[in-house]
Amino acid sequence: MDTTRGELFIVASPSGGGKTTLIRRVMQELEAQGRQAHFSVSHTTRPPRSVECDGVDYHFVDRPTFQRMAAAGEFLEFAEVHDNLYGTSRAEVEAKLERGCDVFLDIDVQGARQVRASVSDVVKVFIFPPSHAELHRRLVARRQDSEDAIALRIKNAVREMREYAEFDYVIINDCLEDATRALASVVAVARMRPFRLRSRVQAILEDFERAAKKEE
Ligand code: ADP
Ligand code: 5GP
What pairing do the DSSP bridges indicate for beta strands 75-81 and 84-89? Predict the structure, then answer.
């Protein structure tokens, strides 16, 4: 395992759970610490919301284009979510990880399952809203989805939340500051796994071995 590679994080939740908000806050912290972090921009067939920009929030494509890309194996994972197709570009993620950048995927539970099947060292985090009423309030306050779209998202939320045990960590996004700190802690802990520290640990072990030889 190359320890200079970036770390891959999946952050999943029902729509409105707070994935985008939390990822952006933690990425700012990482960048302030001099680490490179990247939010993977997915492809989708969903029409853009008024506040969204092509290439920033999503790559907005039509269904035939998406299906062509899927057939060509260009997606690390893809799924139909709330009646639209969404997919993660394999090339984009691989290039960033290779350059030592940490990469955050904001994807649904079906996509998370596909990534887990093909990437062994991915860290999977599930974000829970604190309650049904608060999720509804946040989706309405976000003012980006129609009433029908909100109803569909809330209807699908329970089905998605029941999958939480498949994840490594669960964060209940009640107080935003606490939830941000929790996600930042997960990112920090991920870098303490033995294979990530192999070269530094190896150097310390060699130092001890040299010292032991001198004492012989
Ligand atoms: P997702 O990316 O999971 O769909 P968002 O990050 O867009 O969710 O969050 C949905 C809405 O809830 C946004 O308007 C966001 O500002 C708000 N929000 C997120 N977390 C909190 C929180 N802990 N307290 C209050 N509002 C929140
Ligand atoms: P929204 O339309 O609200 O931006 O996203 C709807 C849902 O699609 C969210 O659960 C989000 O995580 C998921 N999603 C966004 N991009 C992807 C992706 O590339 N793959 C998968 N599987 N789900 C995605």
Answer: antiparallel
Domain extents in the chain: 8-215
Q: Which ligand is nearest to the CA of 74?
A: 2
**Cα–Cα distance between 88 and 66 in angstroms, integer?**
11
Separation of 108 CA from ligand 2 center, angstroms? 5
With 0-12 / 13-18 / 19 or more C-beta atoms within 10 angstroms meaning exposed / middle / buried, residue 113 is: middle
In this structure, what token pair is assigned to residue 188? 């920090």
Q: Band the pLDDT of 1: cuts 50, 70, 90.
A: low
Atom of ligand 1 nearest to the CA of 22: 6
**CATH placement of domain 8-215:** 3.40.50.300
* E strand or H helix at 10: strand 8-12
Q: Which residues pair with 171 in a beta bridge?
A: 127
Atom of ligand 2 nearest to the CA of 40: 19
Structure tokens at 169: 């960590």
The dihedral region occupied by 124, where left means phi > 0, alpha psi between -120 and 50, and beta the remainder, is: beta
pLDDT value, residue 32? 94
Supply the DSSP symbol for 143.
Answer: T
DSSP category for residue 86: E
Residues with CB under 6 A from ligand 1: 13, 15-21, 138, 141-142, 173, 176, 179
* C-alpha R_g of the chain: 20
Task: Give tens-digit pLDDT for 140-160.
Answer: 999 888 999 999 999 999 999
